[in-house]
Records
---
Amino acid sequence: MLIWPPAGIWTRASEMNELLALIIGKSNYWAALILLLIGLYGMIAKNNLLKKIIGMSIFQSAIILFYVSIGDKRGATIPILEHGHGPEAEQVIQAAHYANPLPHVLMLTAIVVGVSTLGVALAIIQKIYRVHGTIEEDEILESIDE
Amino acid sequence: MSFEQSPILILAIPLLTALAISLFCQRHDRFAYVLLVLAMAGSFVAALLTMITVVQSGAAIHYRLGDWPPPFGIELVIDHLNALVLTMVSGCALLTAVYSLRSVREESGDRIAHYYTLFGLLIAGLLGMVATGDAFNLYVLLEISALSSYAMLARGRGYAYYATFKYIIMGTIGACFYLLGVGYLYIKTGTLNMADLSDILSTAEMHESVSIRIGFILIIVGIWIKMALFPLHGWLPNAYTRAADTTSCLIAPLMTKVSVYIMIRLMFSVFSVDYVFRTIPWHEAVVWLATAAIVAGSISALAQRNLKKMLTYIIVAEVGYMVGGVWLANRSGLTGAVYHILSDALMTLCLFMAVSAIIFKTGKTGFDAMENIFRKMPVTSVVFVVGAFAIIGIPPTCGFFSKWFLIRGGIEAGQWGFVAALLFSSLISAVIFFRLIEIAYFGSFETHGRREVARAEAPVSMIIPMVCVAAALILIGIYTNEIVSGLIRWSLPAGL
């Protein structure tokens, strides 16, 4: 009669393997999720307005990375046709050989949007500093109450 | 004569005019004003022509940008629902543009051309959001309008910069949630075109999918942040109160209403009635959330002593009306919500214009600004009273009819809490506005009996748009039946 290993450890080990597969196999989603939460935490919990803006930037970058990673395929190349002219152009193009360019193109726009938001936010922080003399949120709220 | 280019003209005219103003009008303020008013008028005419085309043909217009066929290219889709919203947005923008002549000069001084550039960009973004048939294009236009509204709201009084900063943070979270939700939908379907998404999402497999459900939740929560649905409304009252008066007149009626439209569009044109109300059985909880929004908004409005801040809390309550109406999941509720988008935009515009004119003339922002207004500014005060009656819901103003539809929808759905909240909110608005009208008519206690008050009416450039809006409130009320049967009935999704 076996005392060691106790019953059930093997099934627990296979659950462990599944969990590992979930973490490693979908690492891109996990990375985006962690960045997303860091950014959200920074935007909501930080007291310094500049740190809030840094959080906002991390938050937006997380979404950009999320989109970029979904366009990638194993063994695929950049989406430029190798044989653009002549008789070779007639051959069938296998979509599986090329990374999906659409999410990447979308993110060019999202980057532009992120940069503009950052610019407007920084300009407003500068104005806040001129009016209130500080960029710490609690001090600003105090100066508003007075 | 054919109007086949009119869909793109609706948004191209304000966009290109904004560019022209920023390039050529830096030293010609009056020219910038004329150009802006002309552009808004052009956009309004194009929207009106598009609406007439849609009503006459009875079918949606699909306008391909650059003639790329739909799932690959971006298309503008204009049906009965957004033809109405487009006309409403461009009409409100035109009236505010006319209204802005005197107030902008006082508020923005040497930066008038910059201000009008932002005005044009904001309206182009809002009209684009309404007209587009592409989920990602919607995000870009959402950010265009949001960015220009940040810049406009920041130029205000008091701590406008800090209030705007809060709005930037919340607005970015909202827009990013929407973008993330669209990403989930894209992973599962591989498309961004709304009609194409709707086809793919209608299968049973997609109804079961967890990814689609998370995408749906992210998108809806993102839009709720944008429209300031209670309890996500924290940014709105301060940002709109502290903004310059012209800016509040422009942004307060339009931003929240366009977000409500976006919610309706995505719920029924990307997802389906079946998915939203049957596969996800949450609509009753959302109606309770809307009920809470109405009650909280009304009570907060009652507690205010600042005219504009009081109006912003009324907006929070009105957002609850529309969200509740949509999620009642019946035809009367949705009719009421769509009708309320139109009527609420106009009544908010009416009240903000009247209040801004009063602030412009008296220089006060509290309730004491209202003293003896009936003698000082008779036209403005009549406009204010019409707007107040519309918010309370007194016939024949359109506010009565939207409440009528919403209450009927609430009764049909058996949502008595929502019905009670609507009646409660009407009572609260009656208390607020009759108190203001009392101050306006009799003056406050200290000045009671003093009769010598000089006439000081608002300038003509303000009077004309105000009177137009007040007249529109009554006309839309009178022609409710035509608007509902000609436009709104057509826009209700099948299967509801």
---
Amino acid sequence: MTGSKAAITVRGLRKSFDGHVVLDDIDLNVADASVFALLGPNGAGKTTMVHILSTLITADGGQIRVAGHDPVADPDAVRAAIGLTGQYSAVDKYLTGEENLILMADLRRLGRAAGRKRTAELLEQFDLTDAARRPTATYSGGMRRRLDLAMTLVGDPRIIFLDEPTTGLDPRSRRAMWQIVRDLVATGVTVFLTTQYLEEADQLASQIALLDHGRLIAEGSPAELKRLVPGGHVVLRFADPAGITSALGVLHAGSADYDALTLQLPGDGSIGSLRTLLARLDESAIDIAELSVHTPDLDDVFLTLTGRSAQEAKA
Amino acid sequence: MTALSCAVHDSATMLRRNLRHVQRYPSMTLSLIALPVIFLLLFVYVFGGTLGAGLGAGLEPGSGHGAYVNFVAPGIIMLTVAGAAIATAVSVATDMTEGIIARFRTMAISRASVLTGHVLASVIEMVLAAAVVTAVAVATGFRPNATLLGWLAAAGLIGLFALAISWLSVALGLVARSPESASNTPMPLMVLPFLGSGFVPVASMPLALRWFADYQPFSPVITTLRGLLVGGPIGHNATLAIAWGVAIAVAGYLWARRLYNRDPAGSVR
């Protein structure tokens, strides 16, 4: 390494597929030994970004440095420094977990003894020792994801790309994956991850970039990004449509859904604001069946920055 | 390590991976052997009497299938090699749909090793299958009278064609859009031994077909194998066979390499 503080720098990156612009003039910096999250809905261009940075495909234009090397001019120097865990399972399903790891050790040229040692360590670390001799076709989704990441770590890469590492995992496996990422960063590894979940970016990343239709629409720390969002919303549910009508008459705000019998009000859900809200409804003797508070999520960030919800942005 | 020793090391690693696949999923390999064996039995015992009698005058009545097995065995051996191309193409096409190929592409390994692993495993499978089929042919009355040198030359020629067909089928597997279509594209290869000197003498064919049959890749190989194993005229066929083998191997290699080096657009979303 050159001693520079950036693990990845990108300037003016562009990529199109068949005339369709997928990434448009992207600039970003990823600091060494940090977690960088690229956040966006499906189809935003996250995976394309990861594929370009990991040398899988080439960009149409722009300057890229990964671990100080140009992925086009010197792909093998980049490859020697990185590890990729893609969105789709990258384990060999005919081999056992142990054989998959030994395959990686051989390709990383660790040598027989060192390769076996590293394999045993990783099996232990990722709680796969009991399943080591079983074909990976018999693994659960969470186990396969853990093995996938273990394979990426065999050669101790300095920069790791994780493309939607927790999509499709149950909450427990998701939390386990988060802990693994935190442990990695503690050892000085740089993690570049993509996710659809603001919560995941918030939990893990020190820097978040928001990608929409191939353009970066916001970048900053989780706190900075959340300041862009005016808070979440409160949803009131009523027993009958008349309740909604009388509540609207008192509150003069909110969007009503008469089919679901709900009224959605902007608000951060703080105790004070809730107390005021309930007091006003009480004064007019309006009964509510249910109240729920929604903290800002990716949809709110998107709504604020693009005027569209993340669901709409997928189209 | 030098580039060459890296390439050898990585190709050996990939070969071990492919051989383990064969070991875990042997039904494909077994069907590679079963199909030519069925053809052998069919042609020797069902058609052999008549075809053998038609081969030449002076045969004793009833000895037709004995004569025919000596004629047809080299064709069946090459049919085995051609048939194995399907398994190789399917295995490559299946591999390309797997996420692990993206992993290999982003590792600092010899670029071609994924393909050479498939080719080497395929050559080993083809040569072993050809050996088994030869043994079954001997059991049905095939009586080669070759010298040791003749056997070695025949094995070398089969090996060269196995290499050529393997590179070609790796390219066919890469160009296929799915494992299903990869199982169809090498089919014409299996027809070639029939449209050549494999099952009947080319001289018995209509003129236009005969011209094709004389010069298509399988005829010179089969005629040369027949000459080496049971005797018979070889002539210019040996040169032609080696030329075809080298040409197909080089073209298949270059085509496969170009296909693999493209951006993997299929995996991009």
